[in-house]
């Protein structure tokens, strides 16, 4: 009798499930070749999606910290990891060599949680009330940085440090303060008026950071 | 004097209303031929939209319950009813013959309200705390099933039952537990490890539900 | 050996599930005695929640249509059905006697889908572009009314009509045009200036609808 | 030594900033030629965006108030000002000559704040509970009109009045009551049934406002 | 016969409207004495709400620009104007004397539109890609600043300037760069490491801005 | 002259910043003693908030895997880590001993990204279309699991495995399939009807998992 059931049951579930196939928007793997929208990229066709779209291996490789800040950020945002498109989440890897620093920056569109996997990191943020909240984090500690606020991370240990940061957006954005102020063509006198720094300091940093004006 | 008013008043309102025409996004009838986005399908041109886009008659027809579960689900989601695209709401029809059952399932993207129109339905859901909330519903009763939780509906009366379910999304998704576990190629040993069911049971259900592996 | 497994397995799942108990916000049954918030009412304690909080029987009773509009609306919003609080969905029942009318109204905070369960209803809405979309609906038909737009329902059949409406909010609001214009103390001259109706018409309707001024 | 730093520091920040370039969705200037989506228009390519996309001068010009309502509304919504697409904000200018009136209307998709820049405006709205909140506003006063509710503005001073309104949406919509009721082809008998106005009044206003039926 | 209609019609609408009264959450005037929530403050009782809750006159008064930046910001956020609570919109007034500057700052939780009412303002913002978008704005011009990005406003004319800014949040937040970096107790060496400024510059600005460490 | 500037500049910024203090809702550290709301817990007073509220050390300790599934989940959700309240993000730690398994489960309110920090994990999810996406992940790999879908993680390596999961909600919920089906008092005949499992299997698992009925 069980064998008699097989076909009808299969049929039933096919009926029940048939509209699922047509409707699936459980996910929306980004078609990066199409123009973006305010809610994210249009979706790749479901029939072309494979398990590879949901996995990313780029964070397994240490970033190059042979640079002045002795640090590197490796993102897994929509552009690198199209599977997170529309899902409100993304990750990045932080490598900090001895003395490494991630300078003051903001993410305009996301809150962040830092997880320390190796080493010791001094991290902090400044609130709208200009209160500073900062603390030295050890392996296994996590710290949250609320959306849009200036924050930093410094390797405060004797060896290298490794962290992973999670964001509450597939596309959190990143505005590095020094680069925003000095790494473009905004005229020195405007920077001076709007930062209270003297023109000489500004011009020096513009030179270092590739800005002009 | 009234006739003198006609032109100016008409003119005024034309001015007032002119920008409305260009801006209308009161609704966004889905253009199902375009690729989906995380917020729904692109909109059909307003000039092509008619009252028919906002009406759907497919729920007026009973689903075929001549199957093992003696039940049928007829959806009016974006794919069937493009007028709800972007509006955060959709409906479906439930037909349950005597003994009919809608097995355990979830809607990943929506809460649901069931309205019993005919008959008696025993319905319930399980919370994250694993508490079961279930109750026998009579004609006119409504029950809410919070987003993403496992729930079921059983015809517990002596005749047929008819219900309509509303969702808090134009595209609520549907994951039927048995089909998700047994209706695909997920290897039996993985199913066994992740469900605590024995391989024989799994293989039997895979056979019934069209799965393999 | 199976008996040996019982305790450890139970223990495991207890561990896995223990944090669920503390965290459960699968739902948030409204505590209507607390002050509302922009996101809905504070939640009733989970330990006090029962299956009754998720079921409402008030829509099973026909509304009283012995009135001038020969119609009645029976809501199941947060205030009547606290189980929908925070879940983005609610329902209402429409009873329309022969000749019954639900006059022009809006829901400021929700889109609506009407399901006709008995009879024939002529329903329509007006877009921001002032286009009217209206259609006669028969049993089983559904029609969507996008958020915030003026819409109406008229019993256009020879017998009574019964409909159920679903909303994309637990608290959709309801602004009935005539009542908004004429059922309060807004001075007649202001109503006249802002509606182009003549004062006599306004005063008459104010009298009928309980307004003054 | 400072000169030695230049290249590496520039290199560092280039690395840090390189993924920003690819990911930027700080903004999404509307490509108005593409079809709209429920979340707004697709984005213009970042490489084509200039500062002009974020500035609009159309509100600097007074609207033409030589009309019956002696008032004009000049919008800066997505269609006029594509830079606000996806950013949840837009503006409009209100010009009211002596005796000018913005008749009862709603914005289905946004709350509004009115700022009086010149003159005196009597403004008000009606809640779902049919309570009227209205007040005379002077230069510098602001008033908020919650989403989707009927509201009006009247020049109640002896000279002209100028206001600017802000909306909580890039595309707030606008439904002017009289135009919605009388400026289209909705049959007079339906308007009569759904507004309690008599057919003669309706036909007269239809004539004035360009409606028929 | 009309007189016979009066009572029933009034009765009808009372029935229709009765549930409105209980359900009204068209608005949620902030009860600032209660603790805030992630969605805004709990609501003042509707019975205590008056038209005064929806109007604010504080922006009618010029801010005091007798200070070093020759500028003043006067907010109308939830704390000053409780009527906007939960409505996703707020305003502020900018007064800029000759030479006045609103230094670089961000709003972590809102996009902003600036309207120039008097004078000439040079305004700009920096994107995540470090591109600067800036432009000189004249009376009547508006400019949008996307959420979370660094931006500034400078009086670039020969007389005073007056602007009003609108935000896409009732509580946009405000982080003034100089104050965030130098107006608190963040140790100088941490500021130096995270900004590339030299300690002497930092200590000088800390002194000026009231910071220590 | 610089010393003359000190007071006015400090004064200026105090003025600019003064309203920030009153308005700060950059964050909303949960006051767990107050009743929850649909948007999260009410906020702890800002004056009582310290840097400790934004840091959590509980994920630095390995979970106890001496149990049948040889695995442990350690959450850092709002209940454990009140600093994430309202910020749309949270984390958890996964410890999997050799042979360890996180059985099929869903998070009703969040998407998840898994980061493998040690070992090898076979992870997968099932879509609404019943397609299985699963893959073996090595150290440094990340995988995304879209909201509300059934998913699992299995230690497929020869040693222990360690992972961290991030969620797009401060309170993602957790519904473990076996516990939901068998760890409560839902009657065996209902479970049988709604899962197609035979009563003997159900009763056995109920015994193991602490359920009854």
Automatic annotation (TrEMBL), chains A, B, C, D, E, F:
Span of domain Cupin type-1: 57-203
Binding site for Mn(2+): 105, 107, 112, 151
Keywords, comma-separated and alphabetical: Apoplast, Disulfide bond, Glycoprotein, Manganese, Metal-binding, Receptor, Secreted, Signal
Compartment list: Secreted, Extracellular space, Apoplast
Disulfide bridge positions per record: 28-43
Residues involved in oxalate binding: 107, 112
Signal peptide (from-to): 1-22
Keyword Manganese among record annotations: yes
One GO location term (cellular component): apoplast
Any one GO molecular-function label of the UniProt entry: manganese ion binding
Principal place of residence: secreted
Family to which this protein belongs: Belongs to the germin family.
Protein's name according to its UniProt entry: Germin-like protein
Organism for this UniProt entry: Cucurbita argyrosperma subsp. sororia
Gene field: ABP19A
């Amino acid at each position: 009798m069980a064998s008699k059931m097989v076909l009808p049951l299969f049929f039933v579930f096919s009926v029940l499930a048939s509209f699922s196939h047509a409707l699936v928007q459980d996910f929306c793997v980004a078609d990066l070749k199409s123009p973006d929208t305010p809610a994210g990229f249009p979706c790749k066709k479901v029939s072309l999606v494979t398990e590879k779209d949901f996995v990313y291996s780029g964070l397994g490789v240490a970033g190059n910290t042979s640079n002045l800040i002795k640090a590197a950020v490796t993102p897994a945002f929509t552009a690198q990891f199209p599977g997170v498109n529309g899902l409100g989440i993304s990750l990045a890897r932080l490598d900090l060599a001895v003395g490494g620093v991630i300078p003051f920056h903001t993410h305009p569109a996301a809150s962040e949680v830092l997880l320390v996997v190796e080493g010791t990191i001094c991290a902090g943020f400044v609130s709208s009330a200009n209160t500073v909240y900062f603390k030295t984090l050890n392996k296994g500690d996590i710290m949250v940085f609320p959306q849009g606020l200036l924050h930093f991370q410094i390797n405060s240990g004797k060896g290298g440090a490794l962290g992973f940061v999670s964001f509450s957006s597939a596309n959190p954005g990143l505005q590095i303060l020094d680069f925003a102020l000095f790494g473009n063509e905004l005229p020195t006198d405007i920077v001076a008026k709007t930062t209270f720094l003297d023109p000489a300091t500004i011009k020096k940093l513009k030179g270092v950071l590739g800005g002009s004006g």
